[in-house]
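HUMAN: Quick job: go over this next protein and say how the chain folds.
***
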Amino acid sequence: MDWGIKNRLSQLIQRDGRCFFMPIDHGYFQGPTSRLERPGETLKPLLPYVDAVFVTRGVLRNCIDPARSKPIILRVSGGTSMVGEDLANEELTTSIQEIIRLNASAVGMSIFVGSKYEKQTLANLARLVDECENYGIPVMAVTAVGKELEKREARYLALCCRIAAELGARVVKTYWCENFEKVTNGCPVPIVMAGGPKCRTELEVFEFVYDGLQKGAVGVNLGRNVWQNDHPVAMAKALRAIIHQKATPKEANDIYQEIKSKTKK
């Protein structure tokens, strides 16, 4: 692995081998997502607790202070929306020149394995890896499922993650699932967990994050379960305790409840 790739990955995955990425890229297909209408304001109080931000170039340029940021993972795929025919019909949306100009530590794009556009999105990934490796920029593949949430099971996600790694992704973002070790055991590159739709309780989030870390994930790329929470800073602090301080779900929940109670006063 070249020095540039190693250096950029070290900005993302910390010395303890763990990471907490904060995605605020949802608007690229959802528009003004609830509580992300003003992404810069949503992100600002959370920055001290995260290791990197996953964001599109438009929001990066217009909403994030370049003097007070974290390492950037740049979302570089898109071209579809929630009201369109098929979320899987994505293209690459950002040039390598733009990636370099914005000083991204890594880039991220979605693949849709098993969809009508499987070949297209996998070819997008291969092409992006070719371009980015020339400049020492790691690629994170996102194993997207579109609207078909039933696909989030171990056999399918293991297939997606392995294919992404085989095509050259340096990191893979995927969903937590039952028997998650089947996913991590078959993937030779680091895996980070997505949050998906907002969970019903905070403890539910802490439990799946803790379980995934025990079963081989290196961290999370988790947004809605943090910034859509009524107490996002408490949520971020509690998750950071699990990821970087080896807290249990109960300990994390105690941290969340303590901070929550103080902010109510």
The chain has a mean pLDDT of 95. Strands lie at 19-23, 52-55, 72-75, 77-78, 91-92, 106-111, 139-143, 171-175, 191-194, 219-221. DSSP finds twelve helices and ten strands in the chain.
